[in-house]
Amino acid sequence: MTQSYAMNNSVPLNPHPPIARLSQLRLRRALAKTHEAYPDEADFLSRVGKLLEERLEEIILKPKNILDLGDKSGVMASLLRKRYPKARVYSLMPEQTLAQHLHPPRGLLRRSRPVVVSEMSQLPFKRNQFDLVISNMALHWSADLPSSLREIRRIMRREGLFLCTLAGEETLRELRDCLNDLDRHRYGKAWPRVLKMPELHQFGDMLSSSGFGLPVVDRDLIHPTLPAPSEIWRRLRVLGAGNHHQTRFPGLTGKGYLSDLDKLYRKRYSHENGQVTFTIDLIFGHAWKTSANANKKPNCALPMP
Question: Which of the four pLDDT bands, split at 50, 70 and 90, describes residue 37?
């Protein structure tokens, strides 16, 4: 059950914390190694993508050009082609090797699918090109999220729709807390290791300040379990979600670091059956490119306590 309310137009007394800067070179290198694992590890992206696509059912839209922004599995583009068979679906991917694996060249007699490799903060498209821009679990990896949102609005046609999911601030909070405490114990300082993701209201404010009209954001908190803490960071590596911070720890973590991390995580977050839990903070957002109500604050739907 959710509760919706409108944010007021006053300036917040406590500004939102800044989003950490990432090394796009490290991110691209990590994503280049993920293509062989995606058939087995893309189940989560598929399920979230389906939830996102289902939100189009109650929206009257006949798009001619659609952009799948930040595609890492090919799932979203496939769903969009089925829903809008007459539309031209473009895929923007973050890394060349991954793009070639998911979208190999087609035969001479078959029309090639438009695939572009680019950073999300500098989109290589002209203004007013897309009727629908959709992004599934990719925007939190943007080098500059506010710039990416402004770029998305720039390439959208008037009355175009932007629909997205991204990871929110509570994602992997258990791992982040354990890493921070372990770093302070070992080095006297907590180094950035887990991506700092936007909070719900922060993302809603970004949509408004980027010029979108009628923005709506809501969230879903998920608490999966796995057999061991090591399985959490193994899956993160497979998905390319390593430590890509520009200000990461400048050396090796030292002997016994992962063993200590495993013990600390089990102590805090294990169940009686030995399984360990972690959090996924799933943010959904949609907004329109329209001059009407362009500066209206977003509606935020929050789960009831």
Answer: low
Signed CA dihedral, 204, 282, 287, 118: sign only: positive
150-194: pLDDT as tens digits: 999 999 999 999 999 999 999 999 998 998 899 888 888 766 677
| Ranges 41-55, 86-100, 142-156: which has the least confidence | 86-100
Between CA 196 and CA 178 the distance in angstroms is 15
Both tokens assigned to 92? 């923007």
Specify the pTM. 0.78
Q: Where are the alpha helices (DSSP H) in the chain?
A: 24-32, 38-41, 43-54, 75-83, 96-102, 145-155, 173-187, 200-209, 229-238, 257-269
Distance set, CA 210 to CA 50, 150, 157, 161, 296 (Å): 27, 5, 15, 14, 11
Q: CATH number for 2-167+198-220+281-303: choose from 3.40.50.300, 3.40.50.620, 3.40.50.720, 3.40.50.150.
A: 3.40.50.150
